[in-house]
Each structure stands twice: as structure tokens, then as C-alpha cells.
Design brief:
The complex is a heterodimer of chains A (about 220) and B (about 350). Chain A is mostly helical. Chain A is built from nine helices and no strands. Chain B folds into two domains: about 240 residues, 3-Layer(aba) Sandwich (Rossmann fold), CATH 3.40.50.300; about 80 residues, 2-Layer Sandwich (Alpha-Beta Plaits), CATH 3.30.70.260. Classes of the chains: A mainly alpha (about 220), B alpha/beta (about 350).
Amino acid sequence: MNNGLFANVEMQDMITATNETLFMTSISVAGTFILGLLLGLLLYLSGPGGLWQNKPLNWVTASLVNVFRAIPFIILILLLFPFTDFLMGTIRGPRAALPALIIGGAPFYARLVEIALKEVDKGVIEAAKSMGAKYSTIIFKVLLPESMPALISGITVTAIALIGYTAVAGVIGAGGLGDFAYFYGFQRSDFGVVLVCTFLIVVIVFIFQFIGDVISHKLDKR
Amino acid sequence: MLISIKELSKVFYTKDQNVRAVDKLDLDIDKGEIYGVIGYSGAGKSTFIRLLNRLEEPSSGRVTIDNENVTELKKGKLRVARQEIGMIFQHFNLLWSRTVFDNISFPLEIAGIKKEERKKRVNELIDLVGLSGRGGSYPSQLSGGQKQRVGIARALANNPKVLLCDEATSALDPETTDSILELLVDINRKLGLTIVLITHEMHVIRKICHRVAVMEEGKIVESGDVLDVFLYPKQKVTKRFVDQVMGDPDREHSLGLINETYKTGEIVKLHFIGESTNQALISELSREFTVDVNILHGKITQTQKGAYGTLFVQFVGDKEEIDRAIAYIQTTSVQVEVNPDE
């Protein structure tokens, strides 16, 4: 045993914590993408001038999104305890963090989706209508492909926020690098552990950002 | 008659006022003709063309295309009907995420055409609009004129009965405009396709239209054969449009200046009205009669139905010979006016 700053950093523990963070992040990003996309589409389509223009529906969706975006994440986790327990059968560990992560991330992403869809050229939608396209065709063959670069950069931003959320979830025992940094680093006053966890989280964020940028850039033919 | 429009109206209700963008409009368009609707911005022409395929829902009135009452169609039927009404736009409205090939393929996908057939049809269309070899390009790699060619190919994909052109050349430079107009005439002749276009440029009307309607405040204030409208514009707004192409030979100081400057001989105004036979009139006159012909002012332009325009010329020579020359012109279809008034 040496007595340096990183004396108590166990490789195996770090790998486990990193894996838990990656697990929480990737599943919650996938869930957020799907749920956020649906909510964002609903916001856009029911909004003024949308294909399914519908004021009550738009109001309900927008309110739901705004309320969940307003709740601080740490409080959202606590509020969702009964729901999580019912859904996952536990309120501890990486799996238990998923409902809160997705419900916290989706409304945020939904707004980004709405903005991305609003950027789609109205003329192109009109052209599709003039060709006799169904609404489903307009959604899947016009709206989504035409807004894809923005949808991808939106999910990248959301993913990075979610990585931050996983660390917050660590405080209530979700596992992952945040959890590890808090319990093994902060509470034992082992600054080395905190540093290594921070470094690993930064690396994960960079990797997500890089992948997002590459995909978004590849898809953008404008 | 292919398209029949009866009492068509569109009212926009806003907070302060109700705007009658299209006001009880009647119009018949024949099969195979190129029909132009011209008007200044705000005249309602853009709304009008969108009423034809119900991109705007009419407030009242009826549109019949090929014996099908478009205004009464339910959503599903309307979609099928729209597949037979092609439309091109001022800003092309191509999908930037799709290649030229896939853009043209889009309406065929909508119509449920099988992949093999789509491929064949798209390649035909690419050749038709002169974009061979550009199928794999994205719209961002094309010039404005090329983009509109893609737009035209896309609009023609499902063999429409009619092609609606919404200011199709207004975003293009003059040269590109001409090449797109030539393509439209070419398609009109080759396929016998009926074309309805709206524009604010008289040049477009002159160059390709057979008939024209002038629109102002939601109403058609004047309509007829392009040449007749050019020759005998009745409404002020029509005159202004005609002047756009012709300049205005009668107005300004030109006539007074001519009369002041050229005091000898006779000043004669020649009016060419759409026949190609008398275009060599000037050279004929100077060959047959011993008069000198001095061209002073004027403009001749070509329409789908021949040359049209006005020339001011000065005849110098023997008085009798000049009279004989003028008498000769009167036997042709060229209208002549001696000593036009100031």
C-alpha cells in the first residue's frame, strides 16, 4: 500500500461505478429520447398552426412539461419514491434511478424537440400536403428527418444533463460515480476518490458530446 | 374545360377586420393551356392558387377539376385528388435531407408506387428536366434553377392533370427564369399538361401564357388572350403591367421630343399585333418605295401568339411616295397611325 493521494482508489470499484453510471445514462437517454420525442411532437402538432391544432391538448401537455421541468431533480426523486417502488420493486440501485431520470429528462428534451420541429420549413410541409401526404407520412418522412440534426444535438445536451442527474441520484444510493464520490470520497474525506470520479464523469461527458456532434454533423446536408 | 371555378371566396377573419383575400371569383381554364394570373402582392393570387388544391380551405364557392368537385372532397379523397395536382413553389420547398433522386421519389412513395417502378420513373423525370447525373446530389449542392427543376420533376411524378405554379420564378435571376419558363413550355407541349401560374412579372405572362387574368383586391378585373390584354389593356392596373414589359412609348416626353426633333417627313406609329408575317415590314418598305425609314423609338416583344409592340418611325422622302407607303401598310395587319398626337 502506498500513502499517496490515490492510495484508496480501487480499480475494480471504479470500473463498477463507471459501469453503473454508463448503464443509468444510456438507458435513461434512450427512454428520454422516446418519451421526449412523443411529448415534443404532441406539443408541436397540437400547437398553433400545427397539424392537429388543439388548444386544450396543447395546454395540458405544456403544463405537464412545465411542471416537471420546474421540480428540482433531487426533489423529483423523493416524490417518485412510491412510483419507483411500484415500477421497479426497489428504491435503491441504478435501476431505481431510471424512472426519475427519464421523467426528469423527458420534459426538458420535449422542449428541445418542439424547438427543433418549429425550425422545419413550413413550405416543405405545405409541399408534402400538396402531394397528398398523410399526417403520419408528414411526421415520419418530413418533420423527423428534416429536424434530425437538431434532434440529435438536443439529445446530446439532454444526455449530458442526465449524466449530471445520475450523480445527484447517487446521493440517495443509486450507485454510479456520483454515489461513489459521495460515500467513499466525501464522507471518508478521501479527496483522491472524488478526483478520480470527477475525471471519469468528465471523460464520459466528452465522449457523449463527441458522438453527438459527429452524428449531428453527418446527418446535416444543408 | 378542365378547371372551372365558381364564386370562389376566401375570407380571413382577423381581430380588426375581415379580409376578403379572394372575392367571388369565376374562372374557366381549358385543358392544355397555360393560364397566368397576375397581380401585385396582396392581390390575393397566392391565396387563390392554394384554394385550387385546398391548401387553403375556401370560405365559399366551388372548384371543379376534370369534373371532380374538389371543394366537396373528404380528407382521404382530397389526398388522392392532390396526387393529380402538381405544385411548384417560389422557394422550391425541397427536403434538404433527401437527395435529388429521393426528393423526386417522395410523391411516388406517397402514392404507394413500388420501389422498382419508382426508380424507373424518377430516372425518366431527372432526364426530362435536364438534371441527368445529379440524382445523388443534395439540394444544398444545387443552384436555384436546378432546385426548381427538381421541384418541377417532383410535381410531375404522378402524371398530374394540372400543374400549379406559385411564383415559381420569382426567386430566380432573369436568365434562370427564362430557362425554367422554357422548360414549362416544353412540358406543356410534350405532355399537353395544363399549367396555372401566378406571378407579379408580366414578363412571365408574355413569355409563356396563352391566357391571362389580372387580379386586384381578390377579384379578376380583366382577362383574356395574352395578346388582347397586351394590345387593349382596359384597367389601369393592367396597363401598368403591360408597361412593365413594353415600357410606355406613348407616355413620358418621348413623343413630344420626337415631334420636336424630327420635323421633316412623316412620323408614323406602327403597331404590331401578334403576327409573324409582317415582321420584315421595315425592310420591305425601304425596298419597295423610295423612302428612307428612320426608326425613332419603340419596342417589339414576342408572345406565345407572335410579335407584339409599337414602333415610331420617320418616313423621309417624296410626299406622294410616303403616302403610297402608308397606304401599303394599311393593307397589312400592322396598324398604322400618322402623326400620332402629342
